[in-house]
Amino acid sequence: MSLMASPSAQATTTVAGIGGPFSGQASSLVLRIKELEEQHLAFRNSLVCAFNQLLDLKDISTGVHSTRLAEWALRVARKQNIPEECLYQVEVAALLHDVGKIGVPDAILKKTSALTPEERAIINRHPEYSWAILRLFPGLEEASLYALHHHESVDGSGYPAGLRGSDIPLASRIISVIDAYDAMVSNRCYRKGLPHAEAIRRLLASSGTQFDPEIVHTFIPIAEQEAAEVFAAAGTSATAAL
Ligand SMILES: [Fe+2]
């Protein structure tokens, strides 16, 4: 997990223009502020890593390692010209967008038979739970919004808000595509992962309804490039039968 430095880490002020008898004091004050900023960022990154571990322990993370999911999100985000200073929030959201599943009972989350409408409604609350958790992390307000909207569909049929098209945050549209691909190719206790080609076919089939077509087309070459590694990590094969 890279967890790149967030903008505030790069925003340390300088003492340019301050001179005279106070310049020494000002320098040590700036150094102290920088030190506190670094401590704050290290603490926040530790929290993010701890919650990521919690997802692993609860077996909520999907088959492909969450670090890879975050890497894909960053690659797509860069191709979509999301500014570098905004990528930290994208990375954290890619890692922790499903953290709210902790609030869904295991009996529902891991049910292998069909869900009742009531159970489906409970599972569909998880983006709101993720938002409620992430918004409490200092400085992760953006990431919490990306997590809140990661199950929206571009045709407005998603949840929780039924947002459409570009009203859905770009980072949420990115997470939606890569998370769906990851879920499709990963093995579950009740089914084998889909072959890469079938997962891509389904992404394309839902392009323009569930998924943002531009994000799908940006992601496909990345998925193609890494297919072999992905399938090795997911414990399935790129040519596995349906
Ligand atoms: Fe989710």
Which structural class should the secondary elements be placed in? mainly alpha
Let me know the number of strands. Answer: 0
**Radius of gyration over C-alpha positions, nearest whole angstrom:** 20 Å
What is the global morphology? globular
Major β-sheet, in short?
Answer: none
Q: Tell me the CATH architecture.
A: Orthogonal Bundle
Q: Which fold name corresponds to the CATH topology?
A: Hypothetical protein af1432
| Quaternary organisation | single chain
SSE string: HHHHHHHHHHH
Helix percentage: 55-70%
Overall domain count? 1
- The CA-CA distance between the termini, in Å, is 32 Å
Mean pLDDT: 86
So, the CATH homologous superfamily? Hypothetical protein af1432
The total of helices stands at 11
Percentage of residues in DSSP E strands: under 5%
Bound small molecules, by name, code or SMILES, are:
fe (ii) ion
